């Protein structure tokens, strides 16, 4: 059984004392001579030194072993920590990749749904009678009609040299790289696309927009591609009217798009000289005094919080200025305020018909009954 390490120095000391005592005793008894006694003492000293060195070496070896075990333990801990974090990082990366893939799939599904919603228009009942529907509505792959097409939007088998070509040899519209940022009450992208496609189909000579901004740029670009028509946008906010004009200029649409500053003013129905009807805030009538023969009307303003049924005055003020074949689009039509405006327009204008739309797009579309204007 090995002695505890703490007792080894004491054992060496006892051996040394006993050895010295034996040498002194033997010399006192004349058992050994001085020479032998000194030799024994020297031998004992050497042995003691060797024992001390052995003890020191043992301690060094023990410390080295202890240090080795500590290093092994720390190394294993570090390896485990690195492995654990590596797993966490891998899980985070895989989770992010999965989320991105899901987001891309959702965006693609939304685009497919929008495309499907706008591919055709089906009839639905409106105002107690059967609503009309477009005989043909443009698809996203349709070639943009040019002036020489005589209004026929069907794609041709042999495109003109230099035309931009899409799938199946169809010409497509390419908007300039810079695109404006919509403000808080801007028309949604699916509504803007709907109106742009309607412009491509009908090629209006005069398009009037209540409101301005992103839609003004897209509609202006669409009119430029059709090669005919102009857009008049009414804007009640002077600062935003200036910003929209700057964007129009940046796109080179000055000759096509006119942004008019039309501050809101109290509006009352025609003939209400006594002021019995509640006043609404609508564009100052001076801004529309020169408009006539409107082929397409896009009502996206004023903001719905300007007053109750804020967009109703567009009916009495602008519908009489429309051409017999005009198309009227009312944005934000699914809300209670928008539905109320629709019903009042239909009551005020018996010849006005609301078109049925497929899909869940937040607009109402109106046309005039043939032969009534």
Automatic annotation (TrEMBL):
<keyword id="KW-0489">Methyltransferase</keyword>
<keyword id="KW-1133">Transmembrane helix</keyword>
<dbReference type="GO" id="GO:0008168">
    <property type="term" value="F:methyltransferase activity"/>
</dbReference>
<feature type="transmembrane region" description="Helical">
    <location>
        <begin position="32"/>
        <end position="56"/>
    </location>
</feature>
<dbReference type="InterPro" id="IPR029063">
    <property type="entry name" value="SAM-dependent_MTases_sf"/>
</dbReference>
<protein>
    <submittedName>
        <fullName>Putative O-methyltransferase YrrM</fullName>
    </submittedName>
</protein>
<keyword id="KW-0472">Membrane</keyword>
<keyword id="KW-0808">Transferase</keyword>
<dbReference type="GO" id="GO:0032259">
    <property type="term" value="P:methylation"/>
</dbReference>
<dbReference type="Pfam" id="PF13578">
    <property type="entry name" value="Methyltransf_24"/>
</dbReference>
<keyword id="KW-0812">Transmembrane</keyword>
<feature type="region of interest" description="Disordered">
    <location>
        <begin position="142"/>
        <end position="170"/>
    </location>
</feature>
<feature type="transmembrane region" description="Helical">
    <location>
        <begin position="7"/>
        <end position="26"/>
    </location>
</feature>
């Amino acid at each position: 059984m090995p002695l505890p390490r703490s007792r080894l120095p004491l054992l060496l000391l006892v051996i040394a004392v006993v050895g010295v005592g034996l040498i002194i005793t033997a010399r006192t008894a004349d058992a050994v001579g001085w020479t032998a006694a000194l030799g024994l003492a020297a031998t004992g000293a050497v042995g003691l030194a060797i024992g001390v060195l052995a003890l020191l070496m043992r301690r060094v070896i023990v410390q080295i072993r202890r240090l080795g075990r500590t290093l092994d333990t720390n190394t294993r801990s570090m390896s485990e920590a690195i492995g654990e974090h590596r797993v966490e990082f891998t899980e985070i990366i895989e989770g992010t990749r999965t989320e991105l893939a899901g987001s891309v799939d959702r965006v693609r599904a939304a685009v497919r749904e929008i495309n499907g919603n706008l591919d055709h228009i089906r009839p639905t009942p409106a105002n107690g009678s059967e609503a009309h529907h477009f005989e043909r509505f443009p698809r996203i792959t349709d070639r943009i009609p040019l002036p020489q097409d005589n209004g026929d939007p069907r794609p041709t088998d042999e495109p003109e040299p230099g035309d931009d070509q899409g799938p199946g040899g169809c010409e497509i519209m390419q908007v300039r790289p810079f695109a404006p940022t919509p403000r808080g009450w801007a028309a949604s992208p699916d509504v803007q696309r709907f109106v742009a496609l309607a412009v491509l189909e009908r090629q209006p000579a005069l398009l009037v927009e209540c409101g301005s901004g992103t839609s003004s740029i897209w509609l202006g670009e669409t009119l430029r591609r059709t090669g005919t028509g102009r857009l008049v946008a009414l804007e009640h906010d002077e600062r935003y009217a200036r910003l929209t004009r700057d964007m129009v200029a940046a796109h080179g649409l000055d000759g096509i798009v006119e942004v008019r500053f039309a501050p809101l003013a109290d509006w009352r129905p025609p003939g209400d000289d006594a002021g019995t009807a509640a006043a609404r805030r609508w564009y100052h009538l001076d801004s529309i005094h020169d408009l006539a023969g409107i082929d397409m009307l896009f009502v996206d303003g004023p903001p719905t919080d300007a007053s109750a049924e804020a967009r109703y005055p567009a009916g009495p003020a602008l519908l009489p200025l429309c051409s017999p074949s005009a198309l009227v689009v009312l944005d934000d039509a699914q809300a209670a305020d928008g539905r109320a405006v629709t019903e009042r327009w239909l009551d005020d204008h018996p010849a006005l018909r609301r078109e049925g739309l497929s899909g869940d797009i937040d607009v109402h579309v109106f046309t005039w009954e043939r032969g009534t204007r």
